[in-house]
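As a warm-up, study this chain.
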Amino acid sequence: MPRKPVILIVSMIASWIPGFISAQESVTVELAEVESGTLQETSALPGELLPFQQVELTAKVTGFVEDIRVDRGSRVGKGDLIAQLSAPELDARKAEAQAQVASAEADLAEADARLAASQSTYERLSKAAETPGVVAGNDLIRTEKTAEADRARVAALTRSVEAARAALASVEQMTAYLRVTAPFGGVVTERSVHIGSLTGPGTAASHLVRLEQVDRLRLVTPVPETYAAGAFKEAEVRFSVSAYPGETFTAVVSRPALSVSPETRTMAVEADVDNREGRLAPGMYAEVAWPLRREKESLFVPRTAVVETTERVFVIRIRDGRAEWVDVRRGVFEGDRVEIFGELEPGEQVVRRATDEIPPGASVESPSP
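Now compare it with the structure written out below.
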């Protein structure tokens, strides 16, 4: 049940101040209690829906578009073929690299055979040299040096084979770039080439398609620093878009920037939107009902209890039967109440309909029963 208003009579003591009620007059005022509670309001903030992932697929090698499987609006899965390019010069480079690998491997095989022969000869002569006078010393040294030279040649040719294989692998990798596939599942939102188009780095048509992931969206909201306390992970926010009047959608805060922009004094906050039904689209503007939260409970008074002059904003507190002006700062409006910040405590009495004509120190008496 609503409380009955408390009625007090204020005996004015500052009749000498122009504009104030004289000391002989009295005024009937209604008091209100300073209330404590959790802020339950929301603030309407602008937001924008963006794809969860977006990529511009471009050709990494120069070639002609041999086949393109998608167009604007096409849905693709991860790894699906987007376009197939052709580059005859790459085929020629690949054949040349394969030939160089084969040649280097043949040279290495020949060197291995020569090394095996010279090593075998050296080992036989070394064994025979154990019998004095059987093998001349110069012959043994000559066969040893021949084996060392063959061993060095094998090492050099081994490196040549490795280099040739690396060159072949590089060409094969370049050839693999002729097949353009989707890095993730999504929707093609733009296509820039057709069959027969020349594409590749440095060409006018290096851009092939734009791919966006739309089954999951990012709701990006610039939150003023005053409201940044509500930007914590897993918080649920509601939003609406003009495409569906009267309908609300939900998102879950996932990535607050945790940094306020010095230019706009806002913090960019991202919330994840489940869009598996495909009703929402990237690029839509949203109106976000941003929850206003404080780390501790707030103080509330009636809106009419706050007086604003050119010099200060205050409420009139009644303490020990006298009026006191207490400076406050206004926060969020919640119905007919307003959040305030100042040196007040829950349960204290303030004038409900305050005015600067009630001076500090005015004597307050309860009316006779």
